[in-house]
Amino acid sequence: MSALSRRNLLTWTAALGGSAAVLSTTEALAAPTVPQQVGPAANPAITVGPADVRFAGLTRGQNQRFVSNPESVCLPSTTEQVVAAVGDAARRGKRIGVRSGGHCYENFVDNPDVRVLIDMTQMNAIAHDTKMNAIMVEAGAELGDVYDTLYKRWGICLPGGSCYTVGVGGHVTGSGYGPLSRRHGYISDHVYAVEVVVVDAGGNARAIVATRDANDPNRELWWAHTGGGGGAFGVVTRFWFRAPDATGTDPTKLLPAPPREAWIHRREWAWDQMTPERFARLLRNYGTWMERNSAPDSPYTGLFSRLELTTRAYGPFHLVVQIDAGLPNAARLLDDFLNAVGEGVGVTPTVTDHRKLPWLHATGWPGMWMSNPTDRYKYKSSYHRKGFTDAQIAALYDQLTNTDYAQLPFVVSIASFGGKVNTVAPDATANPHRDSVMKLLWGTAWQGPADDDRHVGWHQRFYQAVYRDTGGVPVPNDVTDGCFINYCDIDISDPAWNASGVPWHDLYFKGNYGRLQQAKKAYDPRDVFKHAQSIRLP
């Protein structure tokens, strides 16, 4: 084993988001709905420069591969301060980067071209806003604090990811998902409104509140933030959440109620007994089950699973499952799922965890949430409309059992998907991926910069081999359906790794890209907010 232990693998695989300040209704209403432009002298934000002891800690996120070197880091605590910081940077022609939780997988934020870095972590308030009839969450709040506050104050939840330290700002704009998404959809499906600081054609910064209301003149700005990804249109300062089918004004009814309890289960299979035939049977079982049990009316929308395929050098690979314990016959449903996955494989797995927990505690189960801010990472993604092809299974087996690569923490995390997500039209939000049954995260972690090329290169070749028949990427077809913008991957922009003829923006956004470009033209006509895979001006 390397210095990265088996436990550490769980701390860096992301799948699926400080203590948040909680405002009263009065305080929420006191905050201006559409703050006006303000001058830099008005209650300035905290600003940290290179000589400050805090600078090194503020110029890197969770992925230690990327470190920025801006002129300054701005830590605003109000929308007005964000307007001032953006306006000042725009007037001076300085490239802006925006950080919420710091979980960006590429150098979109920590980039040498960024001269002003806006760190949103001081804007982390959560409140019931009676005027908007919604739950307001500022962009710097972390998922763990959001879940805890929603649960304890109002007995409600959001179907977001299971990494507690992920920031809301980027997670929501890219359509975060997690263990409750098969039942309730993407987290972005619950956004009623968003406040965004934009820069107009004259270079003036202002804040706009855009809602999903049909008659809202800024509805396209709302739409762009339901899956268009972060850093492309402006600086998100806060969201207002309300379920699409919510009625009335009772805050305890504005978002879904969480399960009371959840069964959690983890089992693992030893590689030394896993022949190519047995491995293929296991993956076919898993994929077939997902195809048959991911409809929105399936009794299994309350079940979430991840099959975590790791390298043979690492040791056993595992399956983690969480299911609503309040479902009728929940224990039987779980057993039936586990039996279906293992049927005919011929290898008896080892059960390493099986418990029933209160839902809030189950969300913090190490089998479901993880983050290690001291490592270096590379990630990729893919959506699957069906299980794996024979060629894909063979490539997975060959690569995972390849002894030429001894890096232990590598994982292909195959998450269950579908359910409520797939009831929404592809163009109803900016996220078009609405008919998949599995969602994959491909990741590896290491510690030393000297090893970057070796680990990134092996990861690139692995992924390319699995999707070799479609140009090295999961193109939209009968089996696959592109990539997930929140698991951003710069390689899909490179013809050396994407020979499919399908551009990166179509892998992420498919037919919605043109509409996103029009939103870009309307709200960021000067292309102030940009990175390597941000929406391009038309």
Folded structure, characterized:
- The N and C termini lie far apart (50 Å).
- This protein has helices at residues 6-12, 25-30, 55-58, 79-91, 143-154, 168-173, 181-184, 219-224, 276-292, 330-342, 359-363, 390-400, 452-466, 504-509, 513-523; strands spanning 46-48, 72-75, 96-99, 116-119, 126-129, 134-138, 191-199, 205-211, 235-241, 261-269, 303-310, 317-324, 350-358, 376-384, 410-416, 438-446.
- A hairpin with a 5-residue loop joins strand 7 and strand 8.
- Helix 9 crosses helix 12.
- The strands form 3 sheets. A 7-stranded antiparallel beta sheet has the order 13-10-12-11-15-16-14. A 5-stranded antiparallel beta sheet has the order 5-6-9-7-8. A 4-stranded mixed beta sheet has the order 1-2-4-3, with helices on one face.
- It is built from 15 helices and 16 strands.
- The chain is α+β, with helices and mostly antiparallel strands and 538 residues long.
- Helices cover 25% and strands 20% of the residues.
- It has a domain at 260-446 and 465-476: Vanillyl-alcohol Oxidase, Chain A, domain 3, CATH 3.40.462.20.
